[in-house]
Amino acid sequence: MSTSPKLKSKIPDGTLENKWTKYRSTVPLVNPANKRSIEIIVVGSGLAGSSAAATLAELGYKVKVFCFQDSPRRAHSIAAQGGINAAKNYQNDGDSVYRLFYDTIKGGDYRAREANVHRLAEVSGNIIDQCVAQGVPFAREYGGTLSNRSFGGTQVQRTFYAAGQTGQQLLLGAYTALQRQVGMGAVSMYARHEMLDVVVIDGKARGIIARDLTTGKLERHFGHAVLLCTGGYGNVFFLSTNAMGSNVTAAWKAHRKGAFFANPCFTQIHTTCIPVSGDHQSKLTLMSESLRNDGRIWVPKKQNDTRPATQIPEEERDYYLERRYPAFGNLVPRDVASRAAKERCDAGYGVGTSKMAVYLDYASAIERYGKIEANKQGIHHPSQDEIIKLGKSVVKEKYGNLFDMYKQITGEDPYEVPMRIYPAVHYTMGGLWVDYNLMTTIPGLYALGEANFSDHGANRLGASALMQGLADGYFVIPYTIGEFLSGEIRTKAIPTDHPAFDDAEKSADERVQKLLSIKGTKSVDYFHKRLGKIMWDECGMARNENGLKKAIAEIQQLRAEFWKDVRVPGSSNELNPELEKAGRVADFLELGELMCVDALGRNESCGGHFREEHQTEDGEALRHDDQYAFVAAWEYQADSKWELHKEDLAYENIKIAQRNYK
Amino acid sequence: MTINLKVWRQKNNADKGRLETYVVKDVSPDMSFLEMFDVLNERLITEGKEPIAFDHDCREGICGMCSMFINGRPHGPKQGITTCQLHMRSFNDGDTVVVEPWRAAAFPVIKDLVVNRSAFDRVISAGGFVSVNTGNAKDANNILIPKPDADDAFNAAACIGCGACVAACKNSSAMLFVSAKVSQFALLPQGQVERAERVEKMVAQMDEEGFGNCTNTGACEAECPKSISLENIARMNREYLSAKLLANKK
Amino acid sequence: MSKESFLESTIGRKMVMALTGLFLISFLVVHVSINACIFLNDGGKTFNVASHFMSHNPVIRVLEIGLFIGFILHIYMSVKLTMKNNKARPVKYQVVDGKANSKWYSRSMGILGSLLLLFLVVHLGNFWVPTKQAIFNGQQHNTFDSMKNIFSLDNWYFIAIYLLGVISLSYHLLHGFQSAFQSLGLNHRKYSPLIHQVGIWFSIIVPLLFALMPISMAFGIIR
Fold it and tell me: Which of A78, A432, A607, B66 has a 20 to 30 A CA-CA distance from C86?
């Protein structure tokens, strides 16, 4: 194996611990006077986009921010519940930058870049400092210090949180920083705008075509550099925990213009979601993984047991995670826990009406907390009722909003009966290939946060997405963008009547008109649902060669059908949500194929990618490090035609090993 | 079950708009309110009619985008939830349900049930932040914050900016939204430096946007999906008074 | 993001409403205390002494001007506020379920206040104007006797107007009392419940005492 010459990762020299420090101090700078004349376009206003835009504006660049929602504050980062990791070691439990780095590489099943992940761990502490300074109200102890909780895949308590709304609070922190710059005129905000293409001039990204979703007008915007902070593509599955509007369009357009797409098959299935209730289902709701800290996961020992959960005695319950993984128990990483749930349900032990769910039980946590609380309050011989009452109040304090959410959606009270959970698509580790500077294979085009592929390998640890989004935006891009922009100080703003803008706008317009002109018989959702089913069945939690081949053929056929028979009502010069959806689904129909191609090519199981042909005797994922310790970066060539480029993953500091959570 | 929907249809801001009736059959009690709209829109599309435009995104009650005024109440008949969290089991077979957009001069209608809430963003831009550039922070645990203050600040910060407070208020006042942000920072040590400046500027911007005045009816608190407390409004009044009248400055 | 002057701001104006409201509430305390002297049933002797003091003492005379200014400010600001409120929602809802989230009287302060103003015109015409005329003309004036004349069963419409007036007052106070504290930012987790309780009792007791006056006179309980 050797790395493709087209993939220059630009990882700095030096020891792992010193790479970032040294690089940061030697990367070329742009002087303040020149920054004022350099324009940067940021697409997406989630954690990565808002933090990058605010910080770049603080540095003096002229920034334009685009988001499809009605306000930057609504980006889907807001829905992250559990928390954000940082190697602060405030709990004195042996945490360190190295340990966070190690956990992340291991959690990612040895498919992430060492240098990027170490940098992420290094800046993790700064993120917490920055957010606290902004007034983010993290949970605190009575002494006034910050509180931490534990999270899947780690043995230290390093997760900072704000009840079950950590993503919201962090995003609002970044959003207020962004709005401050908007107020000062340093950032121009374009809400209800969707990017429809990247404009590439002389091989460099120089702007975008955006559609004003309110008027339908196509707009041209120039930038010396373009940052895509557009999140993940989990909605390719139709049912996922993503927001309804989350899409791959910006990243996909960039891909078609020359940005390589890396590891597209690495999708994360989140363990603790509320099961599907019917055909009308439009999305799935995740409940924070932090629920696994205290909840115990089980199914009946008997197949097709139809008794209500509370009537199944203790000895007839199979706490399968505790049984299979005694060291980590219910806190094994997401991919492991998800597959274990699927395995039990496929074997006929599932619960609920659909039989596609397992129990997440808080009864013993309530009792345990009740006893502790009784002790704290000096109640010496508490009755069982008192213990339960105290325990419920502790659990309410910790997880109240999640329990309320569950009750709201299912109509069942989780304080009384165990919750039913099932895995759902949640996060995509794959994304645009980026170098150490977060630059894609198109010079001047960057990808930050979930939109890139870099830090989580084949599986992301809980509470690490928020960390990565903010690390990229606050502490990485402001430095690394200098490497490119320092060479652009003589580039004058390119007028948007340049032929490249003409061409890009023309092709975007043609596509819009084409979608409207088909006037077929099926709605956009019809195609999206069919695509989602193909993806979930064949490219979901478990994949195999035959299924993937079948899926590729089906997707190609579905795509052809879509372009012949989709019906998009309304016109292009007004607010038209169906038209927006149609454009996004058209892109998903191409991405879905690439995901299957990637999954088919990776003949091993690792992290979120589980190939049934590659498993150990007891059903654990089996990696083939000798052949597949690489990043698969796909270059778009034509419809259904990609060229694979490999970036070797060299592990110089960590001894690569089979993951073991037993 | 069957639901008789009366939905506000308005082509654009210049259009006058009107209620139109739709009968939706086979509604499952497990459906969310928005999923019922999905089903209806699917039908309208196949019938060659224009689907109903409505704002929505996360569909789990946190992004603040969904915004329907249902049977005379923002986010419908249940308390403490957003429209997307409302499920059809809260209705009965044969119910007539009237759905309108948020109505306020500061929230002009874009189309059907979609309104423009950028006024909120401008209020935040006026002062709803702590002026700390990236890289200026000291170690997080150097700032000790009593847990009750942190909890109060969090409860205020839980606002999702959906605008239900404005929609519910008979005067279209935005006091609950603005006071939640003012309170969050007034309660925290990080917010002290710009305390007076912040409240003055945010209130001025709020007034400029054309929101009405607070009559303390409490409708905002009752309808807020995050149950933001009226205490925040009192706190903002206090903050404003001390900023305007008591601050020792020019 | 200019700043605005205190009195142009929504909060400033509400504070004027609150302060004038509380000032008018304090006047009610004085007014009801003096009038309650009739319940001594001494043929109006104590009452007339007190009312004579009120209408002749120079300090009270100055305060009376303040009272008028208070009324006018309260009314002026309410008009200003209402005008802005109406502008804030140019297109009304087709369906509003106000009772689901607030009390009717909290949403009807303008109407209640207008009713009070109408009542006040009648009330001033009944008592204040004749007293002022008498003082101006240097004549003796017996307020107790005027009350007895006005509150007779023959003048049932006056009694009805007075009862309607105090009912309006009661509901206006029921919201206004605690609302004033909220507007001034005088809110406290320990004391606010107390303020609310006091407000409720005040809004019941004071109007009730006022209501009992015409009734007890009309039915001859007080002679």
Answer: B66
Residue A332 lies in a domain: yes
CA distances, B242 to each of A474, B27, B199, C22, C184 (Å)? 35, 54, 10, 20, 11
CATH (domain of A529): 1.20.58.100
- pLDDT exceeds 50 at position C1: no
Question: What is residue C2's predicted lDDT score, i.e. its pLDDT?
Answer: 52
How far, in Å, CA of B249 to CA of B14, rounded?
A: 46
In a domain, A536, yes or no: yes
Residue C55, pLDDT score: 84
Q: What string of H, E and C letters represents the secondary structure of A68-132?
A: CCCCHHHCHHHHCCCCEECCCCCCCCCCCHHHHHHHHHHHCCCCCCHHHHHHHHHHHHHHHHHHH
pLDDT under 70 in chain B at which residues? 249-250
Instruction: Say if A382 falls within a structural domain.
Output: yes
Domain C6-87+104-218 has CATH 1.20.1300.10: yes
Q: Which of A334, A420, A543, A611 is catalytic?
A: A334
Domain B118-246 fold is Fumarate Reductase Iron-sulfur Protein; Chain B, domain 2 (1.10.1060)
A242 neighbors A286 (Cβ within 8 angstroms): no
Whether the CB-CB separation of B209 and B122 falls below 8 Å is answered with yes
Residues 2-41 of chain B whose Cβ lies under 8 A from any Cβ of chain A: 11-12, 28, 30-32, 34-36, 38-39, 41
C106 contacts chain B (CB < 8 A): yes
- Angle, alpha carbons B72-B78-B79 (nearest 5°): 105
pLDDT of residue A662: 73
Distance of CA A531 to the CA centre of its chain: 20
Separation between Cα atoms, residue A304 and residue A127, nearest integer Å = 48
Decide if B53 and A172 are in contact by the 8 Å CB cutoff: no
Give the structural domain span for A571: 498-626
DSSP A611: B
Cβ contact, residue pair A146, B32, below 8 Å:
no
Q: Under a CB-based contact definition with an 8 Å cutoff, are residues A287 and A402 in contact?
A: yes
Can you identify the CATH homologous superfamily of domain B3-110?
Answer: Beta-grasp domain (3.10.20.30)
Residues of B in contact with C15 (CB under 8 A): 237, 241
pLDDT in tens, B3-28: 999 999 999 999 999 999 999 999 99
Domain boundaries, chain B: 3-110, 118-246
For residue A89, the model assigns a pLDDT of 97
Q: CB neighbours of B195 closer than 8 A, spacing ≥ 6? A: B185, B186, B239, B243
Residue A282, domain CATH: 3.90.700.10
What confidence tens digit (pLDDT) does each residue in A170-225 have? 999 999 999 999 999 999 999 999 999 999 999 999 999 999 999 999 999 999 99
